[in-house]
Amino acid sequence: MHERYQAPLIATDIIIEYKNGAQSGIVLIKRKNPPLGYALPGGMAEYGLSLEMNAMKEAKEETGLDIIIEEWEKPFCVHSDPGRDPRCHVVSVTYIAAGAGRLCAGDDAACAKVYTRREIRELIDCNLLAFDHASILMKYLKTKGEAG
Fold it and tell me: What architecture is domain 9-143?
């Protein structure tokens, strides 16, 4: 007999590049449900949706923005450390997208705000990001030549 097979859950996260007038940067939410902290918009994958569609749906629910994923079916990164989410083993598939429209918090986001690269580095330095989103954002900044 074999042991019962148990698969990790899958979540999608999304780095939203947003520019609207004087506002320009990356959209983060402040979570209103545990685990608390600042986070990339995202959520658990839903049956019947592609991961890209799930990321867009979650981002729209949490930020009110229309989401455009440039590189369809090409995630920015995948994180699978069993300890990355304190609730259970969750694999995160992260996308980069442009956001358009009026930014407003919704769903399980207490607030949604545009952060400059400098502000993101400060959140990372102060350990205020949920999950492993600091690591994801550091990878993003490094690919943009802005880490450090």
Answer: Alpha-Beta Complex (3.90)
